[in-house]
Amino acid sequence: MSPTLTIALAALGVVLALGVAVWLHLRYWVQKFSVPLEYESVERVALADGGAIELRRLARQAGELPLPPVLIVHGIGANHRNFDLAGDRSLARVLSAAGRDVWLVTLRSALVTRARLMRFDAMVAHDLPAAARTIRARTGSATIDYVGFSMGGMLLYAALGRTLPVVEVRRAAFVGSPGRIELPLSALRLLRFLPRWLIPRLRLRMISRMIAFAAEWVPSTPLHRIVYNPRNMPRGVAAAALVNMVEDLPAPLLADFAAWAFSDGEIRVAGERALDGLRSVQVPVLFVAGGADGLAPPSAVRAAYDAWGADLPTFTQKELRVVCIESGASADYGHGDLAIGTEVAREVFAPVVAFLHAPTVTA
Hints:
By secondary structure, the chain is of the alpha/beta class. The protein is built from 11 helices and 10 strands.
C-alpha cells in the first residue's frame, strides 16, 4: 500500500470517528435534556405559497371559560416550545389550566427549508391568517386572543388590519416584541456592508444541541446577556431550552431583520412601515418588556406601544409593563427569560393571564 493511500485511509478513519463521536454526543445530550409534552392534536396546515405551519392544541380542561381560543406565536430562531418548555415554564399550560382553549403555532421558519419562502412578508401574508382561520374553523369562534413572543408579536404588528382583520382579534399580549429593531452591539454595524445574498443560514439547532451540556459552565458573557439574563435562569433550564426550543435562523429572514436594523430600525411589510397600521387599532393590548433585554429593549417595545391606537385620543386600553427590579420584580429580565426565567410564572405569566381573562369593554 502506497504512503499516499495509507495517509488518505487514516484521514478518512479520523473523519468517520469524529462523525460518530459527534452523533453520539448529540444523541446523548438530546435524550438527557429532552422534555416530551402531550397535545390533544397536532395539525400541519399547507399554505397557498408552498409554505406550511403546524398547530398544536392543548388538552382542554373541565370548566373551560366562555372566552375565545388563544393563539400563541413563537419568536425567531424558536418553535412552539417558546412558551411551552415544561410544565413549570409554560404560559400555554398556565392558560389551559385556567380554562382557556390554547393553540400553539409553529411557523414556517421552523418547518420549511426553501429559501424563497422564508421572508417576513410571507409569514405576514400566509402564516398568521392561516393559523387564525384554522383555529376559528375548528372552534367556531368569531375571534381569537393573541399572544406573541418577540417576532411573534412583530408579525401581528404587520398583519393586523392588513392580512388579519382587526375584528378577529379580541385581545393581544406581546412579550419582548420590539416595535423597531435596535442593534444589540454597535460592532454589528460593520455587517451592513455584507450583500444580502452572502448572509448565511445560521444552523442554531445543531449548535445549540452541541453546547447544551455546557450552557452553565460560563454563566455570564456578553452573548449570554444579549439572549437572556443568566442570573435569572434556574439551573438546567437553559440546557432544556437549547435542546427543545431552538431552531435555525433562515438566511432570507435574517436578511430582513438586518435590513431594518441597518437602516432606520423600522419594521416594514410590502414596503410599508408596520407600526403605521396600528395607529387606528383599538384592540385592548398588553406589552411586556424586560428591563435588561438586549434584543427588545423597553425603548423598542415602547415604539409599538406608542403607535397602538395613537390616532384615537380616547383609547386607553393599552398597558406597558417593564419587568425589572425597579418595578418590583425579582430581577432585571433579559429576552429569553421573559419566557423561562426564575419567577416567570408570577412576574410575566400571571399578568398576561389576568389581561386575557378580562372582559371586553366597549366604548
